[in-house]
Amino acid sequence: xxxxxxxxxxxxxxxxxxxxxxxxxxxxxxxxxxxxxxxxxxxxxxxxxxxxxxxxxxxxxxxxxxxxxxxxxxxxxxxxxxxxxxxxxxxxxxxxxxxxxxxxxxxxxxxxxxxxxxxxxxxxxxxxxxxxxxxxxxxxxxxxxxxxxxxxxxxxxxxxxxxxxxxxxx
Length: 170
Fold this sequence. Notes:
single chain; 170 residues; alpha+beta; three-stranded antiparallel β-sheet; 4 helices
């Protein structure tokens, strides 16, 4: 089965819409206590009127944001073992407010191909994650291991071909 990676845009010229948080000096770590206590992001992201309002929006904190439609499709296709909690996010564009959702993985999934992944000394640091095709085949969405796991909101996510096909149908 094919998998598709979703990630924060690498360049300013990327066509992926980029939502901007209210305080460019704060990091995701700075916001985490307020996010956790509210079970939602305690601020509104701004999206330039020039950007298209897509089902996937990147943000300046590195958290992938999904539309309610995408969240519903992923929810329908999940096994329940993924351990995802969705946090509501408000995105404002030209005075219009939209609901988006950030996936938080609450458990570590055993999805690595241990032999093919590359580690530092004593396996203390994961340098290159290689996902195991056998281990991920039952899932619809997985975090790319090593992508900001300390934040719980991974910066890189992979979705299965099942999710991609369901999104194309909708």
